Amino acid sequence: MKQLSSILSVLFAGMFWVFRVVLAYTTATGKDLGFPVQNFTIEVILLFVVLILLVFIYKRNIIAAIIYLLLYAGYFGPQLFNAVLTVATSTTGTDIYTYDTIIASTIGIAVALFAFLNILADRNRSAHPTDKKTDWFYKNEQYDRKLDDRADKNNYRTL
């Protein structure tokens, strides 16, 4: 999890999740932020499922990334398609909610796709990789013992 792309994928997914939580809360309280929630019940269920999946994505689980991508593509995909179709076929113009839906749905699918591709690109990445070029020096116990023996024989006087 030390790669910048791994940190950014989880960070962006977490920020989008917080955005969706705020959006669900404001929808439940009757306030309007400009981003419509298509189905409140599914939105709340999706928030809880994605929270669990984000933990597994942090642990770099490929199955969790696939489920995360499929959930967001299944939820935001039809919204995005309908909104783009509305903008494309409208002759008089569309309201701001349609453009907000396009923005939010595109970001949701892009974040899920980025998390999936990040894990798929290097599934064997770990937090502490081994490097054969430097491990002989840093993980060599014989070299450490030799330095310890030599360091113990120093008898310098201090003034």
How would you summarize what this structure contains?
This protein is mainly α and 159 residues long. Helices cover 74% and strands 0% of the residues.
Record the SSE blueprint.
Elements: H1 4-29, H2 40-58, H3 62-89, H4 96-121, H5 132-138, H6 141-152
Helix pairs in contact: 1-2, 1-4, 2-3, 3-4
Which keywords apply here?
single chain, 159 residues, mainly alpha, 6 helices, 0% strand
How many structural domains in the coordinates?
Answer: 1
* Poorly predicted sequence stretches spanning 5 or more consecutive residues: none
* C-alpha termini separation: 50 Å
- Helix-strand pattern, N to C? HHHHHH
Sheet/helix structural class: mainly alpha
Mean pLDDT: 83
Number-wise, the strands total 0
Classify the beta-strand content into a percent band: under 5%
Largest sheet: none
Which value, in Å, is the CA radius of gyration?
A: 25 Å
Q: Which bin fits the share of residues in helices?
A: over 70%
